[in-house]
Amino acid sequence: MNEDAAAIDIKTEAARLRAILIGSVGNLVEWYDFYVYSAFSLYFADSFFPGEDPLAQMMSASGVFALGFLMRPIGAYVFGRIGDGRGRRAALMLSVLMMCLGSLLIALAPTYATIGVGAPATLLVARLVQGVSLGGEYGSSATYLAEMAHPERRGFYSSFQYVTMIAGQLLALCVLLILQNVALDAQALR
Fold first, then answer.
1. Closest to 63 measured CA to CA, from 48, 82, 85, 79
2. How far apart are CA 52 and CA 67, in angstroms?
């Protein structure tokens, strides 16, 4: 093999690794955004769902979480079509943007005390958007990782999708634990 061919191979492999890293980070962010809701719902359920019964508030927050999961097949169908028509990268970028939009809606949503039933409705819409996004991202990401990997390494590189899914869940829980400890330390200082 001459030096020019070796240089092209290295660039191609570097480009592959970069694409796989970007695809994996996108998957990590999607799953983090999706699971951070469940990790923190204990702290915000009473802001969106009225009443004096904490169990009913948590059940309502959990129901919204479940409905987000039910949107995943719709997202898989829609984003599968987008990926086939416009490419995996476009589908992945759109899914990440939709997840960010859902997270932004949740962050900016007023409470039940402020707008009444509009608060849980806004939360529900945001979670449905996130569910569609997650469903679309999962299939697009798996296909994208397989397409970008060297033919002999497709299984290995595609496995990063599952690794980053679990890492997103763990990251959401770690952020929760860190914030709980910071809050406990702040209370101790008072």
1. 48
2. 24
Average pLDDT over residues 4-32: 72
Identify whether 1 is part of a domain. no
For position 171, what pLDDT does the model report? 95
Q: How many CA atoms lie within 13 A of 163 on its CB side?
A: 12
The token pair that represents 68 in the structure block: 């987000």
Residue reference for tokens 């995996």? 88
Q: What is the CATH number of the domain that holds 96?
A: 1.20.1250.20
Let me know if residue 3 belongs to a domain: no
Q: Which DSSP symbol is given to 134?
A: H
Neighbouring CB atoms inside 10 A of 127's CB total: 24
* The two three-digit tokens of residue 29, written as one number: 């962010």
DSSP code for 152:
G
User: Measured at the alpha carbon of residue 181, what is the angle toward residues 178 and 184, in degrees to the nearest 5?
Assistant: 150
Q: Please tell me whether residue 116 adopts helix, strand or coil conformation.
A: coil
